[in-house]
Amino acid sequence: MSHMWLESLITENAQQGFELAMKLSRMGVKYTQPSDEVRGKLRSSYEENADSLIASSQVVAINFQTVAAANNYWRS
Amino acid sequence: MSHMWLESLITENAQQGFELAMKLSRMGVKYTQPSDEVRGKLRSSYEENADSLIASSQVVAINFQTVAAANNYWRS
Amino acid sequence: MSHMWLESLITENAQQGFELAMKLSRMGVKYTQPSDEVRGKLRSSYEENADSLIASSQVVAINFQTVAAANNYWRS
Amino acid sequence: MSHMWLESLITENAQQGFELAMKLSRMGVKYTQPSDEVRGKLRSSYEENADSLIASSQVVAINFQTVAAANNYWRS
Amino acid sequence: MSHMWLESLITENAQQGFELAMKLSRMGVKYTQPSDEVRGKLRSSYEENADSLIASSQVVAINFQTVAAANNYWRS
Amino acid sequence: MSHMWLESLITENAQQGFELAMKLSRMGVKYTQPSDEVRGKLRSSYEENADSLIASSQVVAINFQTVAAANNYWRS
């Protein structure tokens, strides 16, 4: 991908870190399926499927581990 | 998400940490499916499906790894 | 959950740590499905399903990572 | 489980560590389904199912992470 | 595989690290299914399957943990 | 398994480490299904199934985390 979308793993606080983990999870999908149109069609089905939502939450959890470690867990 | 729901990963004890891991797991779903109504409908099905419950428990386990590390495992 | 069920991640030895990992895995299910009756019904099906048992063992493995790290791997 | 089956996570070498990871994975199943008879029946089906075998290998991989860390990766 | 495709886990920045995680995930598939033709055929189906895309994103997330740790999270 | 197949987790470089992760993933299957014949039959089906290939790549990713950590990420 030619444009820069990930400048750093460092965030100001834990919630921003969680939101970065969301973004990483979505980008993992986008690199595999770059078409906005196809992803849009798929969204309407997986957003109403409990198992897909749980699986999505799992990917976020894994990425959040990475972001949290990068930020030393935002310990003050 | 505009309001603040995750102030810190630090909790007083291990059980509160586990409960924070539950919250993180649910928020991973909520970011993907923001509608309370849709999530409510899905809940009635996955709550009675053993494989969905095991998958949910797995997401909690992953998030608990993060929270536990953040708290240095609540070693006294 | 109002009562205290997780006092600490520290255990006397590795086997007790594994058993605590079992407990954490079950509690991850119980927080999502609090009804003893529903969980009891589900148990009879997943206990005889190989894939469900493998998935359960995976959740235990993830929680055991956390407990083992907390205990510094019970290195003497 | 009343008898002692896990004395330590420390092994002499990496291969014994891998074999301990196998054992941990099987014990995760056994704690959930204690009946030797039921597990024996299930084995004949999942042993010939590619996805079950891959899932089993994943549980071993997770447990091997724990055992390898405990042993400081058997670095000499 | 006889040619060299993985020189190092070190990358200049986080985004390149994410892209290396993508590559590692694809190579994990390629080692198991070396035929470009077969992988090409499969791609057209999994690229339009939401659950396959989420699963792919999960593999990337796991590999990104490794790459991020190798790079000390690109902390400046 | 009586013969020695895993002497060490240390490899000369990252690519050899990835290949060792492949081997660990396969051995996780082989310990559960020792028959070369049965595994050979299964291979022809999962090698042409996208989800099985993604799942295989995930096991490799998990084992690669272990091997990479053992080698201190081949940082020069």
UniProtKB/TrEMBL annotation, chains A, B, C, D, E, F:
**Which Gene3D superfamilies does the annotation name?**
Hexameric tyrosine-coordinated heme protein (HTHP) (6.10.80.10)
Which InterPro entries does this UniProt record tie to the protein?
Hexamer_Tyr-coord_heme_pr_HTHP, HTHP_sf
In which organism is this protein found?
Microbulbifer echini
Question: What name has this protein been given in UniProt?
Answer: Hexameric tyrosine-coordinated heme protein
Q: Which domain of life is it from?
A: Bacteria
